[in-house]
Structure formats: C-alpha cells, structure tokens
Amino acid sequence: MDQELKKEFQADLAEFHLMTRKFYQKEISVKEYKGFSGGFGSYAQRGGGSSMLRLRFTGGEITKDKLQFIADSVEKYKIDKLHLTTCQTVQVHNLSDVTVSSLIEEAFEHDIITRGGGGDFPRNVMVSPLSGVEKEEYFDMLPYAREAADFLLTFIKQVKMPRKLKVCFSNSPKNVTHATFRDLGFVARRDHTFDVYSAGGLGNNPKMGVLVDEGIDPSKVLYYIKAMILTFVQYGNYENRGKARTRYMQDTLGPEGYRTAFLENLSKVMAEDSLDLNVQEVPIIKEGCGYLEENFRITAQKQDGLYSVLYHPFGGNIPPELIAPINKAVQKMDQVVLRISPDESLYFINCNKDEALELLELTKDSASNLFETSVACIGSGICQVGLRDSQKLYNTIMDKIRPLDFADGVLPKIHISGCPSSCGTHQIGTLGFRGATKVIDKKPLPAFQLYIGGEETQGNAQFGEDAGTILEADIPDFLIEIGHAVQEKHNSYSDWIQENPDALKVIIQTFTK
Fold it and tell me: Distance between CA atoms of 132 and 155, rounded to whole angstroms?
C-alpha cells in the first residue's frame, strides 16, 4: 500500500488509544466507543470487559511474515482465542485495553492494516482461496484484488459512506466469495474478462446482485470500484442505518434504475480519471517431489506435483497453541503461504508431497468430512449484537452427532448465525440457522430460525427458504433424525432431498410445531 497513507493511518492510532482508555475508564458509552473503534477494526466484546481486533488479509492470504507476527503475538500476549471469519479475516479475542492498543500498532508494522475492518468503510477484499492454484479456475484473481484493496483504502479518509462496502472476486462458478450477491463482485469468465455484479448482500432484506456489466477488461477494475462508491454516496440512505446497505438501492431505484445510475457514474469516472491497471500474473515455479492421492483434505494444484492442504478448525477457531508449530513448519517451506476461506477454513498452498504430509499431520485435529466443516459466527458469547451463541450450538451439535459416525455426506454443511446479520452466512446454507426466540406457554425460549435450500454456486445461487423456528435444545435431535432418514435410503443428503422433499418437510413440522 501507499506508504504515505499508511503513515496517516498510523498517526490516527493515537486517537484510538485515547478513546480506548476513555472507554475502559467508563468515560464514554459502549455505543459511543463502538461507533468510533469499528473504523479501526476493533470492538468491545459483550460486557465491555475486553476487546477484539480484526486483522485484514486481502484474499485471506497470510504470508510468512504475517504468520510470524501472529505467532509472536500469541506468545507475547498469551492470546487464547483466534477466529477465522467468513470475510477471510482473523479475529483476535479477549484482549485487554493495553493489549489491543499494542497489537494494533504492531500489526501495522507488518502491513496488516486494521483500518476499515469495521464501521462504515470498505471492508476486506475477498478472493477465492485457491485463486492461482485451482485446476478449474478461469484465471488468478489475487493480483487484481491486491490493487483493489489498496485503492479502496484511499477512500477511508476521503469519503463518508452510508454503511460498509464489501468487494470480492470469484475465480470460477463455485462462487465461494458470493461475488454475484455482494456489494460489488467481479466474476471471472473463460475469456479472461469479468462480469460485474453490484448492490447484493446477505442479512435483512437479502438481494442477489444486479449484473451491471459483462465481459469487462480486468485492467478496468478500479473504474468500477470508484463508480460503485460514487453511486453509493449519491443514492445510499444516510438517514436510516437499517436501510443503508447497498442492496436497498435496488428498492429505491429498482434493479434497472440502479444499473443505469451505476453506468452513468462509470462513464463519468472513465472520462475524468486514469485508473488503468497493468497487472502481471506471476506464475508459481516450484518443483514437486512426488505425488499424492487426493482426498478430503489434499487437493492437487494446477502446478504439477504441488498440493493444497485443507485445515478446518472446528467452529473456525484455531487453537492458539497450534500457531507456533504451524509457523515453524511453514517458515522452512519454499513459497508455502496460507489462505483463509470464506467457510472459516484455512488452506496451505504450494506444498510439495513431503510438505503436504507434514502439514496434514500437524493439523490432524481438523474437520474431516463435509458436516464437520459447518460454519458458525463468533456468537452472542462475545458479539455485542448477537442474539444466540452460535459457537455453543455448533459444539453441542458436534458433540452429539460425531459418536453416531454418519458417513460423509449424510449430513450437509450447516451455517449458523447468531442474529439476522448473517455473519455465519446462514442464508446460503443447505441448512441454515439464525438466532431467534420461540414463545411457548407465554415463555420466551432460545431458538433458531431454520432456512433450507440455500445455494451459492453461480447460475444456481438462491437464498434459503424460511422454514420455521426450532428450539435451540431440539436442533441436535432434528439433525440426527435427518441423518437417520438419509442413511436409511441414500448415500448423501443431496440425493435424499432431491428424491424426498416431502420427508424433510415432515421432519421440520415435527420440530417447529
């Protein structure tokens, strides 16, 4: 990033330190502090006794230097909770006021920019986690995303937006970054161009993105980003935060009206600015040392003899004690880097056979089937706005279902969000759960709203259907009943639901009545 801008951001940290001290000395309220600290990527946790810090990594990529910083910080500050997010960041939790102030300073020294990690700012730029190495990809997104991320940082001090802005890149129809329904998504095509989608998003009033342009030259990416910001500032809602995300512009302008407004701003930017990119996609040149059979955790890259190793920590929470051995191993491996996935997984990419086997063993306490890779946001145990504890539900479910030893695929990956914000992306889950309350005999009880049939792949993307409210205590049994029904007739949930949609409805009715 631009070093002058970095110095400006670092100078702003003095105010962050001051406001943090005031908050912990109870001189300002939780609301006041949240409105300020979010812009620095930090929030007070529930109860106000500790803080979290969100470390941004463009495309979820953690280089060796950044990994070393995380490992050193875990040891130095005795960090006891690290959470991978669905926006490809690392959240560091349970920090004191002194620790969060020190950590944010030190992060900047390693080019980990937390500015804009929260608040009404451009957020972490997302990229398909295997971009550049995936056999089925159209082309590598990461070089363009890096340019986009640096460009977006320049707007943090220039523009006051109505709400946050999420920009992402998708390298294939798998659409794992949800580029077709984000604030701004660049979707790769076979002909080495992008389709551009805009004004989509999860959460309340979810919307698929509007296809604003097709087949654009990748060198023009920054023009579209600036046009997006101009359109958001021009037509976004500054009066009502509940309707301030970009997707609400579809309600006020209509999809075609929005597209027209976007393209008008795009024409203006192209006439006035010079933002063409000259990006060189650098090939990975590394020798393999043998071959491995692919499995759930080992994927062959398009580079011959190289592999990606999947590590999915349960609930997205990396045990802090594992960071040091991971760091020690990776530091001696040529060109191996880490990539955070939007499903809270972690990939080690560019591994030869021996390196892949070493990392596979080192991270053996990993999800090993589809169901175990289920996604859960950090939940109400930590989050100020969370209604239900997603992590608690995830752990309860796993504790009850693992002993049943269902075959891989019998239960699908589920997505759990503690509130309507969809940080656990419940709306695109095959089965999704969102924190709620259910009243029985006039008594409010902890519950989750069930969503069924969500899908993220390009061309088939759809939001899950609201299927009713289930008591939190009943959700493990609900999933167990589905597992037994699937196991009795089919090898996988996907086959079962296709042939037995009414059977699922019967089970749902039993638990939602």
Answer: 28
37 touches 44 (CB < 8 A): yes
State the Rg of the chain over Cα: 22
How far is residue 20's CA from residue 14's CA, in Å, rounded to a whole number? Answer: 10
Indicate the Cα dihedral angle 109, 111, 112, 116, nearest 10°.
Answer: 110
pLDDT at 188: 98
CA 54 – CA 116 distance, rounded (Å) = 10
Q: How far apart are alpha carbons 41 and 56 in whole angstroms?
A: 8
Q: What would the mean pLDDT of 271-296 be, rounded to a whole number?
A: 95
Q: How many other C-beta atoms lie within 10 A of the C-beta of residue 399?
A: 10
Structure tokens given for 388: 């239900």
Q: 301: closest CA among 315, 288, 319? A: 288
Q: Are 40 and 104 in contact (CB under 8 A)?
A: yes
Q: For residue 281, what pLDDT band results from cuts at 50, 70 and 90?
A: confident
Give which of 370, 399, 374, 376 is closest to 388, Cα–Cα.
376
Residue 27 burial by CB count (10 A; 0-12/13-18/19+): exposed, middle or buried?
Answer: exposed
> Counting runs of H as helices and runs of E as strands, what totals does the chain give?
14, 20
Asked if the model's pLDDT at residue 141 lies above 90, the reply is yes
> What string of DSSP letters covers 443-475?
EEEEEEEEEE--B-STTT-BPPEEEEEEEGGGH
CB 193 within 8 A of CB 178: no
Q: Which distant-in-sequence residues (6+ apart) come within 8 Å of 108 by Cβ? A: 6, 9, 10, 13, 114
Query: What pLDDT score was predicted for residue 478?
Result: 98
* DSSP letter string, 135-156: TT-SS--HHHHHHHHHHHHTTT
Bridge partners (DSSP) of residue 216 are: 194
What's the CA gap between 136 and 346, in Å, rounded? Answer: 19
Q: What is the pTM of this model?
A: 0.97
Q: Are 181 and 137 in contact (CB under 8 A)?
A: no
Nearest to 450 by CA among 359, 513, 364: 513
35: left (phi over 0), alpha (psi -120 to 50) or beta: alpha
Q: Which residue in the block uniquely carries the two structure tokens 């110095």?
A: 7
Phi, psi of 246 (to 5 degrees): -60, -30
From 88, 238, 249, select the one nearest 176 (Cα to Cα).
88
pLDDT at residue number 118: 95
Percent of the chain whose predicted confidence (pLDDT) is above 70 = 100
Dist. CA 237–CA 252, nearest whole Å: 10
280 pLDDT higher than 90 = no
